[in-house]
Structures are given as C-alpha cells and as structure tokens.
Specification:
Strand content: 35-45%
Helix content: under 10%
Shape: elongated
Distance between the termini: 26 Å
Radius of gyration: 32 Å
Organism: Mesorhabditis spiculigera
Keywords: Exocytosis, Repeat, WD repeat
Number of helices: 10
GO biological process, one term: regulation of Notch signaling pathway
Structural class: mainly beta
Mean pLDDT: 79
Pfam family, one: LLGL
GO cellular component, one term: cortical actin cytoskeleton
Low-confidence stretches: 23-49, 280-288, 336-352, 521-528, 548-577
Largest sheet: 7 strands, mixed
Number of strands: 51
Length: about 775
Amino acid sequence: MIFFHLKQYWSVQGAEQDYLLLDVHRSIDFENCSLDWQQPRGELANRISLSNEKSILQGLDSCRTEPNRLLLSYEKTLVVYDVSVREVLANWTLESEPMAAHWSLDGKFVTVASSDGSFLTFAPKGESLETPGIIFGPFPCQPVNKALSTTTHLGTLHAFSGGMPRASYGDRYTVTTIRTGRTECWDFASPVKDFCFAGSHTGQSSPLFLLVLTEEELVVLSVGGKEWRPIPLRCLFPLHASAVTTMTHVADIEEEVWDRLHKHSPHKRATISNWPLSYAQQMAQRTSEHKEQLLLTGHANGNVNLWTAGEASMQLLYCIETATEVAGCSERKESFTRKSLESDSEESECHLTDEWPPFRKVGDYDPCSDDVRLSVQRLAFDPKTGTIAVGCRGGHALVYQFCENPQTCDAASVLDCSLLKDTSGIAPAIRSLRGIEPRNHSLNFTAGYQPRPVDKSSGSLLVQLSPCVPITAIAIYDERSLLAVGTEFGFALIDYQKTRIIHQQSFLDNADLADAGALDDALNRFKSMKKSIRQSFRRKKKATSNDTTLNNEHEDELCRPVERRIEARGALTQGLIIEPSKGLVRLIKFVPNIALGHAQGDTVWIGTHGGRLYGFSLSANGECKLEREIRLQHAAPVRSIEVVTDPNNKNSPASRLLLITEEQVRGYTLPQLKPTKYKVKLTANEGYRINKGSLVTLRHTKGDPSSDVFLALITNMGGILVYSLHNHRKNAKFTLTKATDVAGINSSILSQYGEIFWLRAGASLLQRASLCAPEAPPPVPVE
C-alpha cells in the first residue's frame, strides 16, 4: 500500500514485512513521475524497524492535526509513529484482528474496527478510552469494516459500517451512527464502499456531515446537530437511481418559464453553507444565447427528472414523483415523510419503532420497482408554459403544471378512454390487464410541479386508456389544453381542462387485432430486421429476374441467400421476436398554424408502425377532422415529421413536410401533401435503418454568427448522417458509437442545436456529443 501526503511532501510505502520505506520530496513533478519501488532512493530512503515480529502491514493513517504522526495497523498490533523524530509513541496489542484503524478528526484518539462486530477507542498515549463492545449482540455479528469517531458540541459521535447480526440482517448495507442516547442505522440499497466525516467548506471546525459512498451513489447525511437527516445533492447525482426508460430534450424554453424553474428548484434553493463539498465555479460560460434547454428523463419507478442541458455542467432542477397519484404509493410516501420529520424533531423521540437495530432507509438508488405499470414510457414538454405530460406503462397519462405556491390537491379523478368498441377479438392476456387505481385522498404539494387540476375542481386528472398497454407516443398543446396519447391500439385526443374526449380512433384491422399487444416496447431492440429490409430486397429481386429461362426451383435458389423467408405475422420461429402491429402509434405531434388541405390552423399528426401518416385539423370549436392520409409503399415505421419553411429558396416550396421513416426520408408539399423531389432511400442504398431524425441548427465554424438548418439522422449502426435541406446529395457522415452498442443507440436523442445524448453501457452514465461546436467548451469545474 502507498500513503501520500501532499502538504508535507513525503510518501510512505508499506511492505509485507515489519518495515516502511519513507521518502521525503522537496518538489514533485506529477507529469513526469516514475518510481521504481525495487530500488532505494539514496539518502532519502529510510528503513524503519517498528517491531521484532515479522507481521504484515495492513493499513496506515495520518493524523489530520499533526501530519507527522502515522497510525500503523498490523495483524494484532497498532503503532503510532512520529516521522519527525523517528520514534514510536505508542502501541497496543489487540485480542482480535483489526479491520481498520483511523485517527479522529481532532487527532485526540484512535478508533479501531474489529472483526468480531465491535470497535475500540484509544488515546495516543496508550490507554483505552471506550470499549462499547458488540453493539448489536449478543448473537454473532458481521465484522465492522470501518469505524470513525469525532467530537461535537453534543458529545462524541461514532460511525461504523457493518456489525449487523449475521443471521437476521447480514444482507443489509448499513452505516451506523451512535451518540449518547441515540443510535441510527442508515440503510442503503447498494454495498457501502467508504465513508468519512466532513465539515462545512466555510471553515467550521466541528464535523457536520457524513459522506457515504456506495457502489451506485453518494449520500450526504447531516449528523452534527440534533437533527440527523439526508442532504439534497448539489452535484454527483445518481442518474440511474432508477432505470432510465425514456429521454426527451427541449430547447427554446420561454425566459419567464426558465426563471421560475430556477427560482423554485429545491436543489437550487439549498444554500451553499449546507453543502460540505466545494468546487471552483466555471470561469467561462458558453457564449451561445441558447441556454434555456432541458433534458427530461423518465424512470422505471415513475419519477421524472428535469436537468439543465444548456451548459457543460448539468444540474438537477426537479424530480416529479408520478407514483404519488397511485393508491398505496402516496400513503407509503406520506407515512415515511411524517415518520422522518418526527424522528428529527426531538432527539428523545429517535426510537419511534420497536425494531432493533433502528434502520432508516436513505439514498435515491432503487433497483426495484413496486409496480411495472408505474414505469414512464413517454414524455412531452410545452416550452411556452412548462407543462409536462407523462405516459406510463400501465396505459395511463398524467399532466403536471408549474405552480409557485404550495397547494392541496384533492383525490384524483379518472377519465376512461376505450380505443376499441369490441374487445372480444384481442388476446385474453391483454384483455385481462387492469389499470392503476388513483389515490382517493388529498395530498399536499410544495411550490413547483403539481398535478394540473381539472375545471372547477382542485382534484387532478388521470387519463386511462384501455386496453391497458404501454403508452407509445404522447404530445401536449397547453395553449388549448389538448393532450394526445397513443398506444398499440390507437390514439385519443383529450381536452384535460374540460375532461372531455375530443377524438379517439384505432388503426388496427381485423387481421392485426388478434396479435396486437403481444409485443412489449422493451423488446423492440431485439426484433428481427426482416421487415425493414423485406421491401428493398423484393424490389431488387424483381429488377434482376427478367430472364424467363430460369425455372422456379432455380429462381428460388438464387433468391434464398438475399431474402429471408416471409412468415405470417405472429409466428415465433428460430428465436425471432414477433413484430408490433401496423396500427401501433409511433408518432404524435402538434403543429400549430399551418395549412393542411382546405383548412388553416392547428393540426395534429399521427404516425404508425405500418408506414401511415394521418393529418388532423383542429377547429376553433374543438372538433378534430381527418384532412390527409399518406400510405407509404415500403410500410416502414414512421420515426418523425418536420415542417420546413424556406420562402427565400426558389428551388423548393415555401412550406413542406419531411416524413422520416425507418427506411427513408420523403418530402411533401403543404398543404396538398404532394411528393417532392427530395427523397433519401437509406435502407435500400446503404443498408442502414433510421432510429432518430430531426432538424438541427448548426453554426458556421469560421466565426460567422449565422447558422443553417440541416437534417440529422441517427442510424442503427451507431452513425449520424447530416443532409442539406436543399440538396440531399450534400451530406456528411459521423460515427457516434459502436454498432454493437444497441442500448446506447436506442436511447440516443438529438437536440435542436446539434447535441446528442445517449446512455453508456450500464445506463449509469450519460454521454454528450455535438455536431458543431465553433467555440471552445467551458472548463469542467475542478477543486
């Protein structure tokens, strides 16, 4: 082991014998530092003999107040050695093997963690100060892996990891804090790696916080005063506290909405003095004016997190817990909050439960979900008002609005919307699915995001689609209080202010109805590629098979290597995952104030998995009418649509529609939706499939402040293709990630200004990249 002390310019190397190698350094060059531990360092090398027995050095620690004092741990011996005078100041012989030994923060005593489930405290002069024994005995306990102690104005505070009763609680990951008359077992969801005491970065001498590092997250606990409680994080957020199920990027948020989000954010309101870690502020800010950007992440436990995405350092603004709208989840949360507040109110009331050890669950990491129906599948954000629409796996949707005042929300009401008139034709397993039960009591909400109340009521609204299959698309238009939700069985357009269903429609025919719902959205990444390339190979086959002299058997032999066998939908052969039905809604998008057909005004567009696009007009009196329908011959899933307006270009219409499918990009004129010459056949020519596609605004790289709009496509091979909107032959290709990184490709999203976000392997890291960064990025905050 190696111990390195920066302030005193010396380092210590432990060896598997009874000596140390001590090196004194006057200056250190970290860039060109190469040490050969086999060779002594001349006059600076000192071999220090500490005992007569040949034992292994297991650990060492330096005193914070007097760095020259080293605490050395052997098999059953502890030694305090003074480097300045080269003298052993104290030593202790222990009955059991020490797991770890550390100085207190004030340097007045030493705390030793023992393998029998206890810890000891010694003074530097050699006497034993405290022997609390096995805390959670008398039955055999796990070893105490690490123990720390320090002095506060309320008495001596001890903290140790492990030490739980082996038979009853051997599977718990805990750190226990003990003070006179009070004991608390902090229970974590992942193994504890390390912990330490820390004071406020403002210079306070008394330790106020306990920092616990687990395998999955960092947890900060305030333990210096009477109240013991977790502290909200200001950095190092656990992105994967619950599995990320969907991501959405929003740009050009209204300045008023952006200011309110920052003003009432609970993470922004936390004062700097209440945070133990300090770091240098960013010295340079991004010169771009497009800072009002948000990244929304949906999680498996029903949470929705809002992150700032306009700067290099992303900060968590809000966490919306949609599970509180479900019966059972809100009661557990309210009971847990009330019990935590009561336990922190008075020190004498810390043991409100008869359970021993007194466990207290902390941390955000939660690998398990109480109900899979709570998982967030799709998100929509209105940049003009800040309203959020959430679509979940149970087939229900919720609407949240931003409110600057605390409010009490009454019991949630359910708006049932059946997409099928007759459900006898669907599979029994789908027909038996049931929606969630909303909470039946009022709930208090702080300033921030709250469930949007319905008209003339303070209760929230929960939209439940049936059959209760996962939401596949969602969109919101808050100016007119419109919510559009789609599943595999169709879509519904709802006025959530008046609690009224404006329009509902299913796109399934009788042939697809029996197989509808058999596919879970989480299995899409494993499906076969036969549907995406079937039509391309079929056209190639027809073009090259004009020779009529070949018999049918020979023709089948020639086509067999290039075309997979076409099987009936719903068949599961050779491990191929069945495909979604053609009527599955892949896209819902509101496009306000455009001309469509003979109507001028707001529109809503619906794209399906079978390559169909429907354009509906929205009248002023709240009616929804189908104006245009596009049926693509290659029947590939619709990925996105974009409205392009370029009145200065004489070679293209003033307003046109770009339809992006899994296989190609097509251009159509507006309002008649006639095909244009803009057409990119990606699967037929290149063999790629399109996962995501949108318009991006990129700046010029030569200092010109102007910018241009391009079409960016993310392919299934991990690449990005950028096309000009005027001539698709002008394009560029970039590599984003490996083709084998299926999870990263499926999770990738594009921002309006050319940034790409995707999850790294393990879904615990978020990777960012940019198509165009003309200015130097701001420096990463460092200490």
